[in-house]
Amino acid sequence: MNPLKRPAMEEENETLLSAKLQRMEDRPQPSAEDVRDTVSEESDDGYDSGELEASALEIEGLYLDTVNRASLDFDFEQLCSVSLSNNNVYACLVCGKYYQGRGKQTHAYFHSINEGHHVFINLRTLEVYVLPDNHKVDDKSLNDIKAAVRPTYSAEQVARLDSVSEDAYDLSGKRYIPGLVGLNRIKCSDYMNVVIQALAHVPPIRNALLLLPDLECKPPLVQRMANLVRKMWHPKLFKSHISPHELQQEIVNRSKRRFKLDSSGDAFELLTWLLNTLHMDLGGSRKSDSSVVYKAFRGELNVTTQQLQDTRVRAREDDPIEMDSAKPIVRSKVPFLTLSLELPPRPLFADGDDKGEVVIPQVALVSLLQRFNGSTVIEWQGQAKQYQLLKLPQFIICHIKRFTSTDLAAEKNPTVVNYAIHDVPFGSLLPKDALATRPHGASTYNLIANICHDGRPAGNKAPTELGKPATAALAATTAVTYTSDETTSAMGQYVVYLHHASNDKWYMLRDLQVSPVMPQMIFLSDSYVQIWQRND
Q1: Residue 133: how many CB atoms within 10 A of its CB?
Q2: Residue pair 148/74 in contact by the 8 Å Cβ criterion
Q3: 108, 32 in Cβ contact below 8 A?
Q4: DSSP 218-231
């Protein structure tokens, strides 16, 4: 600075200061009310609200640009990566790691200082803070992150899920269809993935989980199931696949390790356990309309039972069993959630055609359903039983019993089940009086989910003969047994075929793989669990 100009500048500054002091003296003195209002607008640090607002804008402008959405993953259990605590957990929006607390001497505070990552979101309250300044951020540009943590839906959005098909795109530009997203496979969790995918496409179950109020007050299993389903149907995912680890870990703990991640399980057993557990957690009772589970799946049948020694004497052992009305007979009405269908026994010797090719046995689904027509008598644990359907639910779960197991080995029945995917007449199984009085007596059903099992039974590895995979043809030709001393890579796997109502197309989901299929391709796999929807 030029020293010759310094006195002139000082004179100018003194003139401005004198003018400012004169204006302050001429200003009228504030009243007591004005003083109280002024104090209330000031912070504890002595800065007024205008200065704080300018400082807040400066902080937000500095750090919000560091948010990296590509590194964010909110699918895993909300535990601090240092202390493993689930209390007051924050996610770093720069690296995606979880840390506990935001005050001084907390792991999130130290992370912000050591790594220079300053933007954090509370995973419970969805409040965003800048650390170590401890400044709360309220910016609309972060709403997509809050929706990724905890998606929410309106009744109008849910009503459009089955009627409007809209493609969505993740951060990398990959296209996906909401509701048809892949699930990560954690060790042997394929049997869990197919059950979750199937239930997420049952409209009453899906809609109830999407719109469930006060979710934080529900049991952990309901919370995690609802959060996963909401993410699966979310149209603005950061990535086109989801990790179901949080829900699957809760299933392992809640079932007391009956279902595990490190060993394959039975998809049907998991489905029945999950439906009953969700029914209880949602406040269900023995009443048929006490929960959304019972409203969707609960039906009723009449069971007629007679001791086997009281039945009529058969001339030949191959003759069908007939009940003797003169002997004691017990009749009872029993509710059901699933219908189990018995496959014909696998032949001991494979049949072949003229060219020597193996012929795999086949049976029609309508034939398997005849055990519930009220006239077919079956033998079960020393008793003769008749089953008569009395009430059909909106959704019917059919379990095709393919697996038989002993202490030494397990076998899978490769019989092919033939069925139509539209207008299957389940209503024809009802008694004649029910057809005339019940509004859905002669209803037909459409297939919406088909859980299949490809390969060998769960818990078995490579076959002991020839070292070849146990395909349907091989299983039909020889009574192959499996031992557990082989590698797990040769095990069978569950897949699920789903009907997407909004575009009326079928898709095959195998863990992360999601691909459209022709309806004719559904029959190529061994159907194990089917979900049918009534045509109302």
Answers
A1: 14
A2: yes
A3: no
A4: S-HHHHHHHHHHHH
Q: Higher confidence at residue 27 or residue 374?
A: 374
- pTM of the complete model: 0.81
- Please tell me the distance from the alpha carbon of residue 490 to that of residue 266, in angstroms, as a whole number: 17
Give the highest mean pLDDT range of 48-52, 403-407, 442-446. 442-446
By DSSP bridging, strand 505-510 and strand 299-307 are: unpaired
pLDDT (mean) for 383-395: 91
Q: Which residues contact 231 (CB under 8 A, 6 or more apart)?
A: 75, 151, 181, 237, 242
**Cβ contact 535:446 at 8 Å:** yes
Structure tokens at 292: 């959304």
Residue 442 pLDDT class (50, 70, 90 cuts): low
CA angle 529, 530, 533 (to 5 degrees): 155
By DSSP bridging, strand 395-401 and strand 383-391 are unpaired
- Taking the C-alpha atoms of residue 235 and residue 453, their distance in angstroms, rounded to an integer, is 30
As beta bridge partners, residue 306 has: 384
Chain-centroid distance, C-alpha 305 = 39
In contact, 186 and 264? CB cutoff 8 Å:
no
Give me the amino acid identity at 303. V
